[in-house]
Amino acid sequence: MNNMKKLNILIVLSLILSLSSVGQDYSLSQMNESPVLLNPANTGLASAIRINMNYRQQWRSISKPFNTIIASADGKILSQGSSGSSLGLGILIVNDQAGTSKMSTLNANLAIMGKVMLNEKQSLSAGIIGGLMQRKIDVDKLTWTDQFNGTSYDSSIPHGEIFTSEKRTAPDVGVGLQWSYGRGSATLSSNDAIGAQVGFAAYHVNMPNTGFHEDDDRRYVRFLVHSSFSYGIKNTPLQLNPIIIAQIQGPARMYYGGTYIKYRLQESSRYTGNLFARSLNAGMFYRFGDSFVAVMQLEYDQFAFGISYDINMSQLTTFTYGRGAMEISLRYIPVRPSKGNTLL
Question: CA angle 88-33-75, nearest 5°?
Fold first, then answer.
């Protein structure tokens, strides 16, 4: 690798790391498969117990990869049945590590949700999530543009940066609100159920200070709006599931949308005792100005496994050659429901 290309990559990595250092959050391509992260109003909303895990690896083509691991468990702790109010509780743990610098963000959160039924088909839920955010960095593993001597990188040149601490811990709070609608199928095999969700969430509402310098480096509040719709095509095994997500955090904007096409391999049935449907799902999404995302997912009884790949379309394509991020998701519902799910 020639010296100019090395310098270009150093500049690219500096830009990527600078986004993290000024308080930007990680993001997922299968955000719907991390429901507590998407909106705390989702906590315990759908199942007695639900477990989700996500893994994302990014920027492998230009540096040591950036890795994000997310795990959550949530469920109902009080419920008046499927047609009544309920209370949900959940935990969310996120570990995000940024390449060579090992700059990491660890979040450990507890979420609680309350739901009220507006009528037999609609509900309104509100949630709050709170915990601790810890950021760490290994300064010795960083490289700086000031250490470029004109022809090559020289680690003996002082970088001139002063860090008062390489670790910072702060409380972190978020809130969310969500409207949900569900209408079940007319018959066991008609596949004409409809479901919809619209939600709003705000994270880091207390703007935690997560900087490594003496001055405050407060996390920007992250505002998120999301909407999803499920539509079963009557008397076919097909279902459409479009999803739209918009985020604003400080100067950063993220707009993401697309759809899944789900093919039912087997219907759920209360008569056979198989209350989980089986389906093979394919999706295509676009993150505005950044990437196309291809997704494949298999839902099989109590499990769901998904894999996606981001095809980079941004200005970084010169360095990434289109290779963006790989992501996998796993969902497990250990407790079988007492009846088939009508919110698809």
Answer: 15
User: pLDDT in tens for each of the 344 residues of the chain?
Assistant: 444 444 444 444 444 444 444 456 778 999 999 999 999 999 998 888 999 999 999 866 666 778 999 999 999 998 887 667 899 999 999 999 876 666 788 999 999 999 999 998 999 999 999 999 998 877 666 666 666 776 776 667 666 666 656 788 999 999 999 999 988 766 666 678 899 999 999 999 999 988 766 556 788 999 999 999 999 998 899 999 999 999 999 999 999 999 999 999 987 655 444 557 789 999 999 999 888 999 999 999 899 999 999 998 866 666 555 677 899 999 999 876 555 444 43
CATH number of the domain enclosing 50: 2.40.160.40
Q: Is 167 exposed, middle or buried (0-12, 13-18, 19+ CB in 10 A)?
A: exposed
Is residue 40, in this structure, part of any structural domain at all? yes
Q: How far is CA 78 from the centre of its chain?
A: 26
Q: Helix (H, G, I), strand (E, B), or coil: what is residue 87? A: strand
Q: How far is CA 174 from CA 80, 97, 169, 273, in A?
A: 26, 22, 16, 39
Dist. CA 137–CA 105, nearest whole Å: 9
Bridge-based pairing state of the strands 323-332 and 222-232 = unpaired
- Strand 323-332 relative to strand 86-98, pairing: unpaired
Bridge partner list, 304: 299, 331
For the chain, how big is the Rg over CA atoms in Å? 22
133: left (phi over 0), alpha (psi -120 to 50) or beta: beta
Domain that holds residue 239: 3-332
SS3 155: coil
- Does residue 344 sit within a domain? no
Separation between Cα atoms, residue 96 and residue 19, nearest integer Å = 14
If one counts the domains in the chain, the total is: 1
Longest dimension (CA), the chain: 75
> Is the separation of the CB atoms in 169 and 131 below 8 Å?
no
Euclidean distance between CA atoms 249 and 239, whole angstroms: 33
